[in-house]
Amino acid sequence: MQRRPTFYCFRDLSGENQCGGLIEMGAALASGRQLFLVSENWWSVEHHARVRKFKSLEHAVTAIKAMQTGEGARRLAVVSSTRNPG
After folding, report:
1. Distances (CA, A) of 1 to 4, 51, 82
2. How far is CA 39 from CA 55, 56, 69, in A?
3. Domain count, the chain
4. What are residue 52's DSSP bridge partners?
5. pTM for the full predicted model
6. Is residue 74 part of a domain?
């Protein structure tokens, strides 16, 4: 079974046209994914509930790794509690 990505990382580079990326960004949000927006510019979508905005790619990657670590710990706790109910 193929796993669906749980997030989308969109990087806005100065001087680049973002038309295709905007379509992907909208599709990611419409499908319920978390969006990590890397940009120093203002975006109207940055206030959306599933959007986290960062000024650098390094900060976004740090947040993504933390999210994945937390999700792994949550899964382990759920599996552990179902095998050993209190």
Report:
1. 10, 27, 23
2. 5, 7, 24
3. 1
4. 36
5. 0.74
6. yes
Q: Supply angle C-alpha 50, 71, 48, rounded to 5.
A: 5
User: Which range marks the domain in which residue 36 is found?
Assistant: 7-83
With a cut of 80, say whether residue 47 has pLDDT above it: yes
List Cβ neighbours of 72 (8 Å cut-off, separation of 6 or more).
none
Residue 38: enclosing H or E segment and its boundaries? strand 34-38
Question: Is residue 2 a part of any domain in this protein?
Answer: no
Confidence of residue 67 (pLDDT cuts 50, 70, 90): confident
Residue 27 banded pLDDT, cuts 50, 70, 90: very high
Angstrom distance (rounded) from CA 39 to CA 86: 46
Q: CA of 11: how far to CAs of 55, 60, 84, in Å?
A: 10, 10, 43
